[in-house]
Structure formats: structure tokens, C-alpha cells
TrEMBL record:
Keywords: Calcium, Repeat, Signal. The keyword Signal applies. SUPFAM superfamilies: EF-hand. It comes from Phycomyces blakesleeanus. This is EF-hand domain-containing protein. The keyword Repeat applies. Residues 1-32, 44-79 form the EF-hand domain. InterPro entries: EF-hand-dom_pair, EF_Hand_1_Ca_BS, EF_hand_dom, MCFD2-like. Gene3D superfamilies: EF-hand.
Amino acid sequence: MVYYLFVVHDKNADGHLDGHELRAAFTDFEEGDEDPTKFISLEEVTEMVDHVLEEDDIDGDGLISWDEYLQSQLYHGQT
């Protein structure tokens, strides 16, 4: 399930999540909801993306690899 969530949000299939893909993941609500800002502000999403990149981007390349994602999920007890 964890790998599925990673792959679903890796829109360009490069094996990494970039800031745009993370933003999309954080605003991926039900299909009928066209305006995600009614749930969360753009500023909050930006802060969340920045936090993820700061905490989980171990090699500092500005991307979250599968290994980095998995390490984060294991650390936070999500697997």
C-alpha cells in the first residue's frame, strides 16, 4: 500500500517525488472537489512541502526517492 501511494503520486514516473508532486499529493481530495483550497490554504500546502523536503530529502537533491519515502514512513510508523 505504501509503495502504491508513492507510485500514484509520482506522476512523471521518474522514481522520485518533487515539490509539485508533493503539492498534488497533499491536495488530492475526492474527485468531485475542484478547489482544494477550501480544505487547506496554499500557504499551508507550501509549508508542508517545504517541511517534507527539509526532513526527508536525505541526499539534498530536492526530490524524495522511494528509499527516502520508505525511511520516513518507517520512522513515522506508517508501514
